[in-house]
Backbone:
């Protein structure tokens, strides 16, 4: 069956995904023309499929992320992705479109796997890939670009985003120790699953937007053969 290409851009909150995604999308439109390119983002907060995700992040199950086990929370996000795929972009993908996803299955590895003991991480990654890619039949990505930003840098950028209003952060953003564990888990998953790591800071100073954009565009062009 014909299928398209999926490029994923992921990273902790404050790593620059929302800045880089539209820039990378424009690049993909240029090099993929006349083939269509779609930009999608998860969670899909505008759709009812994200209801459990929103409840979880708002702390309605617990203000402590660890109180909602990794497999339950992973399912909240997986169902949202499945609904998005079936309703909005499966047809385009099967017709050969290039899809750029801001967050994807990868985000469960980043944000949920670190809730588990490190000795269980490999089992979780195997479960996650079997669950979302095999059981739910979500397409596997052709390239995962992970924007790696030290937590102290991303936390400062988040505080600036919210103008210092800490109460606006969700339960992930508000827990610095949890975010540090997520970064450690992300680096582990990147190594195990072959993600492309993009360093977004040097000596605790964020790299320039254009410098990072060029690195991302180069990686994407290689995968798309352009």
Residues:
């Amino acid at each position: 069956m014909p299928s398209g290409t999926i490029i994923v851009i992921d990273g902790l909150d404050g790593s620059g995904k929302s800045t880089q995604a539209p820039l990378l999308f424009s690049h993909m439109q240029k090099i993929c023309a006349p083939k269509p390119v779609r930009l999608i983002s998860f969670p899909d907060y505008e759709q009812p499929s994200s209801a459990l995700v929103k409840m979880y992040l708002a702390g309605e199950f617990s203000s402590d992320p660890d109180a909602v086990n990794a497999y339950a929370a992973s399912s909240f996000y997986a169902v949202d992705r499945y609904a998005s795929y079936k309703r909005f972009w499966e047809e385009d993908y099967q017709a050969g479109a290039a899809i750029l996803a801001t967050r994807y299955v990868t985000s469960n590895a980043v944000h949920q796997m670190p809730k588990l003991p490190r000795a269980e991480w490999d089992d979780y990654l195997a479960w996650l890939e079997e669950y979302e890619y095999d059981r739910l039949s979500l397409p596997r990505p052709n390239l995962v670009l992970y924007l790696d930003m030290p937590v102290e840098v991303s936390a400062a950028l988040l505080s600036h985003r919210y103008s210092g209003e800490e109460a606006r952060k969700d339960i992930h953003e508000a827990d610095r120790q949890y975010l540090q564990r997520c970064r450690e888990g992300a680096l582990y998953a990147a190594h195990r699953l072959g993600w492309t790591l993009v360093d977004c800071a040097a000596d605790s100073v964020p790299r320039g937007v254009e410098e990072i954009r060029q690195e991302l565009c180069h990686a994407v062009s290689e995968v798309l053969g352009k």
Remarks:
- The chain has one domain: 5-224.
- The chain has a mean pLDDT of 91.
